[in-house]
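To the wet lab folks,

You asked to see what we're planning to order before we commit. Fair enough. Below is the target structure as tokens, and below that is the sequence we designed to fit it. If anything looks off to you, flag it before the synthesis order goes out.
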């Protein structure tokens, strides 16, 4: 397994910050352009990876869920949850009253909608929060600003004009740590899996009853459309416990009897210290 950790984005991206929080500031990080490239680096080169999977405001990152289903040999081996606190960032000579345009990822723009409307700014989409800062720096126009992390400002030698500008302070993003290897139980684990069930009355209820009968807590369930099969769905589940726990492994074996597809995406230790602000 490689020693580097791969993330999608550029320095200053929230994924980079989450990786530093999980692995420590001395971790060797490498950035790529897309989530699919992160998965390729793990599957073909044995690297570790990190990717966002859900946000408390904007919901799930569907592309990452789809990649977890499609990619063989890549498992979730950990998670990190960070509180996202957005800043308005501009060139060092800019003043906040001069700003007219604001660049960021569409999710960040949505998360700061109230601030943007109050300031009467024109929202403009960029590929990521950090790339928005880089673009504003390159344009070198006093009327432009970006929304991103404070670290993105530091990395690009820019100025924070306003901090904590998100509309909701309970803004958290959950990242998953990805690897070719599995994990051993820690005593505080969860297991993620995906399954497909025939579209017949009571089938989903009977399948989920296997989890309830085993007295296992299901913390999340979400459906995603099956491509090429309109109105049929994959169901993504998070349950408490580790695959190596007897109760969990037995419940999954029984659950498999109700499904046409079942794939364990990984068992891993639950995130800790989720209130850290970045």
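Sequence we intend to order:
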């Amino acid at each position: 397994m490689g020693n580097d950790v791969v993330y999608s984005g550029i320095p200053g991206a929230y994924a980079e910050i989450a990786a530093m929080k999980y692995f420590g500031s001395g971790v060797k990080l490498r950035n790529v352009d897309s989530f699919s490239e992160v998965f390729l680096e793990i599957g073909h080169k044995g690297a570790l990876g990190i990717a966002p999977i859900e946000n408390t405001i904007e919901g799930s990152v569907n592309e990452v869920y789809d990649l977890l289903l499609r990619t063989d040999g890549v498992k979730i081996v950990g998670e990190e949850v960070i509180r996202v606190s957005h800043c308005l960032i501009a060139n060092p000579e800019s003043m906040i009253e001069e700003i007219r345009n604001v660049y960021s990822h569409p999710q960040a723009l949505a998360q700061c909608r109230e601030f943007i409307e109050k300031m009467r700014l024109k929202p403009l989409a960029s590929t990521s929060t950090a790339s928005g800062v880089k673009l504003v720096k390159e344009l070198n126009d006093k009327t432009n600003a970006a929304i991103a992390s404070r670290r993105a400002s530091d990395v690009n030698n820019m100025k924070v004009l306003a901090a904590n500008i998100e509309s909701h302070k309970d803004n958290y993003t959950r990242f998953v740590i990805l690897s070719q290897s599995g994990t051993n139980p820690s005593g505080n684990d969860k297991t993620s899996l995906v399954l497909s069930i025939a579209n017949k009355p009571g089938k989903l209820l009977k399948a989920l009853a296997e989890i309830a009968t085993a007295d296992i807590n299901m913390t999340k369930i979400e459906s995603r459309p099956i491509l090429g099969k309109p109105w049929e769905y994959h169901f993504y589940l998070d349950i408490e416990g580790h695959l190596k726990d007897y109760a969990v492994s037995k419940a999954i074996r029984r659950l498999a009897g109700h499904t046409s597809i079942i794939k364990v995406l990984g068992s891993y230790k639950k995130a800790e210290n989720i209130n850290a602000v970045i």
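Structural context that might help your review: The radius of gyration is 21 Å. The chain has three domains: 5-84+171-179, 87-163, 189-268.

Thanks,
Computational group
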